[in-house]
Design the sequence.
């Protein structure tokens, strides 16, 4: 059954409005503050929000802006007294469906709510939940995402080690942009056959090459008016790099074997865990394409650099796994939490998600215990990135650089040394 969340700081009025909706066949819950509303939205499926404009610790506008920022595309209705109507009108300009003068318990308002729920049902569930970061590095990344997402003209290059969630970042950019109602198309360039990469991206015409038995539209066409995400973009060959650069500059492309150009309107987001500057120096990647893609670079930190996020992120993943597997696991016991926080997570967020999903299925009781967590119990493995053994120092530094996507600042943190010390060691071992 669809759920309406009422946000109203007057408990009596909130309860009366909730009971009125329930009597009219609509499931309703209420909370008494903006903070409680955020928490409820993070942990429950909600189909419509009915919020008072003026609340003790904030207002409905603040909640609406928070929902927009965090990817909640849920119908939002503002309840208002006479004196707050100008503010409520402003809320409508920022995405609220309508504003409703109090008292709202009328047949007209009931019709507005039912129409909003019907429209949402017809359009599909467009809510996409994103994890709210806690650690300084992740919070800084989220701030940059919120800044760049609405700026449609900027290409974004997401850099980070494997498993850090680069596609997740790209999806956030899409959802928070003006293109969120259009398609998000993700392409893993690392698995594209080199001889077919151009066809996959730009399409081809019948007879363009052996096996081209009919016309094919490519990913550019599928992403038109939306966002095209190219993961591991460094794997594209020289021919496709040249065609991609021209498509981005001219906003036009030609299908393989085609004679006519097709106009395109996409927002491009690319990602890599490779050192593209090194690839440029070795002649494997075009410098002009790099600068075109790198208009706004984003770095995704290692999970090991975001200790404060490990447990909240695991709980967020547990909630998703509970829904997927129809389980009701409540959380992780204290010993499991210690192990999750002390482990080095070489596979980053991807590895954490795999561990949480498996544990959710294996859990015998309400709480996940150490028996269901499939990670080494040696803690953060102090020796893994330790420089105590001079014989292994060069190999350890290389391992840290690989784990961080050659981000020397992050590698220094992982090794437990300063950046200046790392640079000295890079010169010592001729790794600079």
Sequence:
């Amino acid at each position: 059954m669809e759920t309406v969340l009422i946000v109203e700081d007057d408990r009596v009025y909130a309860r009366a409005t909730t009971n009125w909706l329930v009597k009219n066949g609509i499931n309703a819950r209420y909370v008494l503050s903006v903070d409680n509303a955020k928490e409820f939205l993070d942990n429950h499926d909600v189909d419509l929000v009915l919020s008072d404009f003026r609340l003790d610790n904030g207002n409905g506008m603040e909640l609406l802006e928070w929902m927009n920022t965090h990817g909640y595309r849920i119908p939002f209705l503002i309840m208002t007294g006479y004196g707050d109507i100008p503010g409520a009108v402003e809320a409508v300009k920022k995405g609220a469906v309508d504003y409703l003068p109090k008292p709202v318990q009328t047949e007209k308002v009931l019709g507005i709510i039912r129409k909003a729920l019907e429209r949402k049902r017809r359009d599909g569930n467009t809510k996409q939940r994103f994890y709210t970061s806690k650690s300084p590095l992740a919070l800084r990344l989220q701030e940059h995402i919120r800044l760049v997402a609405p700026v449609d003209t900027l290409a974004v290059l997401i850099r980070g080690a494997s498993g850090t969630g680069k596609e997740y970042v790209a999806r956030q950019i899409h959802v928070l942009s003006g293109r969120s109602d259009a398609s998000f198309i993700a392409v893993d360039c690392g698995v594209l056959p080199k001889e077919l990469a151009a066809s996959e991206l730009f399409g081809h015409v019948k007879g363009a090459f052996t096996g081209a038995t009919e016309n094919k539209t490519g990913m550019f066409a599928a992403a038109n008016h939306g966002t095209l995400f190219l993961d591991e973009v460094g794997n594209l060959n020289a021919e496709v790099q040249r065609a991609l650069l021209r498509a981005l500059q001219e906003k036009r492309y030609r299908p393989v074997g085609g004679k006519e150009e097709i106009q395109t309107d996409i927002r491009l987001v690319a990602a890599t865990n490779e050192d593209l500057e090194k690839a440029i120096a070795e002649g494997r990647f075009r410098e002009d394409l790099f600068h075109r893609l790198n208009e706004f670079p984003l770095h995704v930190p290692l999970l090991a650099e975001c200790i404060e996020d490990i447990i909240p992120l695991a709980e967020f993943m547990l909630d998703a796994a509970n829904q997927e597997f129809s389980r009701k696991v409540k959380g992780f016991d204290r010993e499991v939490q210690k192990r999750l926080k002390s482990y080095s997570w070489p596979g980053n967020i991807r590895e954490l998600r795999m561990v949480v999903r498996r544990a959710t299925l294996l859990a015998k009781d309400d709480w996940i215990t150490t028996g269901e967590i499939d990670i080494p119990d040696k803690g953060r493995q102090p020796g893994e990135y330790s420089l105590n053994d001079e014989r292994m120092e060069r190999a350890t530094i290389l391992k840290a650089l690989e784990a961080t996507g050659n981000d020397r600042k992050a590698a220094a943190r992982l090794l437990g040394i300063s950046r200046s010390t790392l640079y000295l060691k890079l010169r010592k071992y001729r790794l600079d």
Notes: The two ends are 60 Å apart (CA to CA). The chain is about 45% helix and 15% strand. Residues 307-325 form the longest helix (19 residues). Residues 3-123 form a domain with the Rossmann fold fold (CATH 3.40.50.2300).
